[in-house]
Specification:
The protein has one domain: Aspartate Aminotransferase, domain 1, CATH 3.90.1150. It is globular. By secondary structure, the chain is α+β, with helices and mostly antiparallel strands.
Amino acid sequence: MSQKTKVENVPFPEWVEGVMPEHRRSEAIALDALFRKATGFTPVVWTGGIVGYGAYDYTYASGRSGTWMATGFAPRKAKLSVYIMPGYTDFGPILERLGPHSKGKSCLYITQLARVDTEVLAELVVAGLKDLGTYWPVRATP
């Protein structure tokens, strides 16, 4: 994620209506409910079609600093991207129970939401927020 990524001034209900294809829109609505319940945060739309829940401010040893979402998702055409910051360290036992997925550094890829256990996904989101909180304080997004 680059520093060019920032909060957009678009309400989630308006934004989600433009998600295509239709099955991704339905999955985005289902993921929104899951993330709201798991995090206690309301969604904020970021540039690049990313929906974030909560935020944190960071400053690296290099001096680079910024604000980023604490967790979230992006309904991409081929796959759903689920963002867990700062990554999936030590989440192997949860991931084993999730269902079909692949992963990147801080991103989990799911081809069909119906094929994963959404209760386990919610557990992963909560674990990710708890882990992130050990590095940076997590707060609601303004």
